[in-house]
Amino acid sequence: MKVIPRIITILTGFTLLLAGLVACAPSSQSSSSSSNTTTLTVATVNNGQMVQMEQLTKQVFEKDHPTIKINFVTLPENDLRSKVTQDVATNAGKFDIATIGSYETPIWAHNGWLDDLSPYFGKMSAQDKSSYNYDDLLKPIMSSLSYQKHPYAVPFYGESSMMMYNKQIFAQHHLTMPEHPTWDQIKQFAQELNDPAHGVSGIVLRGQAGWGMNMAPLDTMINTYGGSWFDNNWQPQLSKPAVQQAVTDYVTLLQKYGEPGASTSGWQECLSLMSQGKAAMYYDATSLAGVLETPSQSKVAGQVGYAYAPTKVTTNGSRWLWAWSLGLVKSSQHKDAAFQFITWATSPQYLTLAGKTFGWANVPPGTRTSIYQNPNYQKAAPFAQIALDSINTATPDQPTANPVPYHGIQYVGIPQFESVGQQVSENISAVIAGKMTVSQALQQSDQLLSSQVNKSNTAGY
């Protein structure tokens, strides 16, 4: 969570990350207009899956539910987190549904900012329960969205991380990507495939500051290199040798073989380069692969290979686990309507609708077992099995080689992480830009952690 200890918004800045879906569902008590119409406000993040949901909401949901209107508030990920967190933490009541992530959900639930969804599922009719098929939801994803074993959000899409590579570029250089590569192999590939004279980067990676931006892939490197943010006594560990080596390798990949302007590149910029054939490799979220396989969006559709996340000394924490999900905000005045929208947008029927409308490769992935058994999806998504395996084998409760007091792979599941994670990410971006050394950045980061995180203010998380 992007929250600074001691600040009420403490636990949910990250939530804005997910603030992609603050939905208002139909309610018998309308808060809007002179008619019998309920308007729900959804905070949403500006990525492709959420944009598609907004389109289908207007085209299908609102036509099928004429007394419910959905107002989407769409913002960049970082902006969304801060604004949604502030609203929910102060019970301002602007949003009915929040698009939140695996980081925010248990923290918000602990803070009493979200409604437990169990009673709402319990009230569903037998027919609606059968249609929704709650047990079809992927268990690792639902575990990340639960607090005290109760669901406080349901996933719109889920993801892990994997290596994506241009098969034609590899073939031209007579190279073969292993199914389970190591980071040492990736470094060698990046060096051999980097071709700036022809506008091709050996690898593209997130360099833009943000605990959900550059720290997401970098944290998996730190984990698999044997490092961690803290030891079991909450003592900072970022300046330790394993972390130093992981960060050095990440920075070297970007400075020597990465995209131009890497310190400001987010996943959008990296995905664009990969889809234009201007990158040999791209390590990022499994959920982005659908874009690469869609001819209208990608020049390399059908030419991309997929491999598991690279490793170094341990597989623990080497691949992340995340879900953009819809949570019912406690202060909403239209909870039954909001729940109706939430279950529509996360249903098996929605996945079928999205597949038929936008192409099966673009179905929101990582939420249900059934989609991975769908022949249409299997045919359109050559990455499906690796993505599913990666989600099912991610280790958020054992994210590092050594025992640690926190859960989370690409984040530390404490409220303070929203703030300290952001500041550490800014140090890393400065290193990529050549404005700071790795040692300076990590020493400053450990000093920051020492001043803001301890046993007492992390208790209960």
TrEMBL record:
Gene3D superfamilies: Periplasmic binding protein-like II (3.40.190.10). It comes from the Bacteria. It holds the Pfam family SBP_bac_1. PROSITE patterns: PROKAR_LIPOPROTEIN. Residues 1-25 form the signal peptide. SUPFAM superfamilies: Periplasmic binding protein-like II. Keywords: Signal. This is Sugar ABC transporter substrate-binding protein. It comes from Dictyobacter aurantiacus.
